[in-house]
Fold this sequence. Notes:
Blueprint: E1 2-9, E2 19-26, H1 33-43, E3 63-66, E4 69-72, H2 78-81, E5 88-92, E6 99-101, E7 104-105, H3 108-116, H4 136-140, H5 153-157, H6 160-163, H7 170-180, H8 188-195, H9 209-213, H10 220-234
Parallel strand pairs: 1-5
Antiparallel strand pairs: 1-2, 3-4, 3-5, 6-7
Amino acid sequence: MKINLNIQRYNPATDDDPYFQSYSVEVEPTERLLDALMQIKRFQDGSLGFRKSCAHGVCGSDAMRINGKAGLACKTLIKDVTEIEGDTITVEPLRYMAIQRDLIVDQAEFFEKYREIKPFLINEEQVAEKERLQSQEERMHFDDTTNCILCASCYSACPILEDQPTFIGPAAIAQAYRFNADSRDRGSAERLQILDRPDGVHLCQNHFKCTQSCPRSILITKRINETKRLIKNSKE
């Protein structure tokens, strides 16, 4: 089937503002959006810029907005974003991050917020055995959050960041929960203090856009609300 891709283009070295450029490609309904983008880059326009790596939904590098919704190009089938032959798919870069070129954004601020919540195990207690043991039941308290690939889809989908750009964001909060709920961790108090700031977890208004956009099916909004409860309980 033949479809059109309306792609936002922008090269800060030569362009004053972003603009859209349309490409026509022949694809199968079961092919991925990434396949269509690669076809354009290989055979129509080698200047088109976008990130990709594993192409199997593991690295998170090809996150972008597809028909207005954040997602992974490698996990998006053509048949899921078109209805009939000749349909147009609009492709844009993720929101709230500076565009480096076309669909490539600068994720430095996103990762700075992520690192701020200390996304690692904190425990200075002496290990009694060879490792710190954990039961399957204890693991299940935070298991889904370990699937995060830091693609920033949830960050781009969050409506709070539009008016509150300093908001730490859903990915950072979900990853803070991942360690706060870990029975082996002892850094919860420190993380909760960070998340209790004016630009922290309380800015979330439960729009659920982060959960809906997550390509790894992480219950992000649930983890955010559980973090709010952890903060409340820590003050009682």
